[in-house]
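Everyone, study these two lines:
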Amino acid sequence: SRGAEVPGRGLSGYLSVEAVRARLAATSKGAALRELAELLARTGRVTDVDALVRAAQAREEQGTTGLGEGIAVPHAKTGAVTAPVVGFARSAEGVEWGSPDGTRARLIFMIAVPEAVAGDDHLRILAMLSRRLMDAEFRARLLAAEDAGAIARVLAEVA
């Protein structure tokens, strides 16, 4: 794809290991959105965690971001982030996310982009992720990776 030639603009341009959590503590969607927003704040790209949570919740109210196959990709456009950023958390038990196939979300990505540049950035990230997440073997590797560093290495392949 066209975007793949740009160095550092694969998923690793947006996701760093400090925004990866191998064990999500949250058991509800609302708590998971907050935990992910706090995770994103560790990157220094979030100025207001509460505003990010509100924006992500507002997006969920328009329709679930549960994609099925145990995947959810909550996302938000908000002035509470200074640059596009992605976080990831894995849930052992899964979180009820209203996915079309009824699966609980175990692989949860949060995408947050500034209001001003929202346009294609979050759609490109979403497309990048969706392509890889349709691959069962890739999902299995994400579920099997033993810690945040190992998860980040698997995710670094997403381009």
Notes: The CA atoms of residues 16 and 152 lie 7 Å apart. Strands lie at 20-21, 66-68, 71-72, 75-77, 85-95, 105-113.
